[in-house]
Known about the structure:
- By secondary structure, the protein is of the alpha/beta class.
- It folds into three domains: 1-149 and 282-308, no CATH class; 151-277, CATH 3.30.1330; 313-489, Fe-S hydro-lyase, tartrate dehydratase beta-type, catalytic domain (fumarase), CATH 3.20.130.
- 33% of the residues lie in helices and 23% in strands.
- The strands form five sheets. Strands 14-15-16-17-19 form a five-stranded mixed barrel. The protein has a four-stranded mixed beta sheet with strand order 6-2-7-12. The chain has a four-stranded mixed beta sheet with strand order 8-11-9-10.
- Strand 15 (369-371), helix 12 and strand 16 form a beta-alpha-beta unit.
- The mean pLDDT is 95.
Amino acid sequence: MATIKQEDFIASVADALQYISYYHPVDYIKALHAAYLREESPAAKDAMAQILINSRMAAEGHRPICQDTGICIAFIRVGMDARFEGPLTPEQMVNEGVRRAYTDVNNPLRGSMLTDPDGKRKNTTDNTPGVTHIEIVQGDKVEVIVAAKGGGSENKSKFAMLLPSDNIVDWVLSMLPTMGADWCPPGLLSLGIGGSPEKAMLMAKWGMMEPFNIHQLQARGASNRAEELRLEIFEKVNALGIGAQGLGGLSTVLDVKVNDYPTHAASKPVALLPNCAATRHVHFTLDGSGPAVLTPPSLEDWPKLALDFKSSRRVNVDTLNKEEIATWKSGETLLLSGKILTGRDAAHKRMTDMIAKGEKLPVDFTNRFIYYVGPVNPVREEVVGPAGPTTSSRMDRFTETMLAKTGLIGMIGKSERGATGLEAIKKHRAVYCIAVGGAAYLVSKAIRGSRVVAFADLGMEAIHEFEVKDMPVTVAVDANGTSVHKTGPAEWRARIGKIPVVVM
């Protein structure tokens, strides 16, 4: 009988969360690099290069891959002959590990968990609690999977109670366009089929912890229905042409996982969960001999890439006006220098409430850009921690007011805008740019200064002023309302039919 010491379990969870904050799984890096080498869309190829370069930088610097360091998820398989030494339950031990990891002074991680989710939504500050799933199995060991899931991909989770005769592939293909690029492709899709509604969701979540191996399956062929679905969905989703960051291209997914379970004769529950470019999970086993030992991957597993910005337009954001931004074209790449403001959901809500009351805003937005970001706290010589973009469509409901009432002329975020946001951008002849989701550490290196200028009580959602130097962005919506997230996938969806499928 193995006796698992409480401190060993807690320390292992804390170490695991630190580990996955800056180390991608190597199988993901290899799958992404293979897709990068195959990619023919320049915009998508550049986005994948930024993700790969960011990943290597995070591994070298031991800083988060993404500013959204996620909701913590633990799958625990407890052997029936194992015992825990100490008063805490496994769930309590997981939460203590989360607290230690997210408040580590050497690599503090962003606390994103809020209590009272439909009320005051108060930040717990240490990212507790996590979400823990416990299963009792045979044996005397404790197997643990620790993962961190960002809000962008979690928000695109889909579930349906299909009829027994419904086609699952058709349903998946109908869901992908509604998911857009908010989940930061290219990544992984995981399906859970059967059981009950909660069983399907759990199977899908568990499946996204499996290794990237679709090309091995392509080589040997399917041996059951689940594998047939993997191959068909992989091919047909990539044929949609959505591409990296929704810019259009050959690779939208790097793998598809399918797990199933017997279900009621009248039912076919199906869960579809995406895992983003910030794929983060690690597996370990405790046998009573001490805490888990997590071996760092070799940096040789990462490709050595360099970014090419020779064709990018350099822009001084301190002197911008509507006449100049009107010359920008959708899909054009820019390097921004100067001072930009930041703001996310909470700041936008507060500002629009102030505007509605006739109150003066604490910041002048005239001819300024706002960056939708909630950065990680800085350490050592950093002026700001990893600071990648958040999902822009959440700000669509505020965009008309911000453009009409504040003098704002430009926005920076990630993925596509919804119909409301697009309408406001076109109406006010503003522009919307994207930074690459999943490249937060790389983006932070372009930020040379940072200070809080309003709403300090909102923590990471406060309004900052960033001083940036050559911050890479792509014009996603120009002043005429043309969106690269519409034109790019449409172009590549048409072209993919003429491109032979590459089997590796």
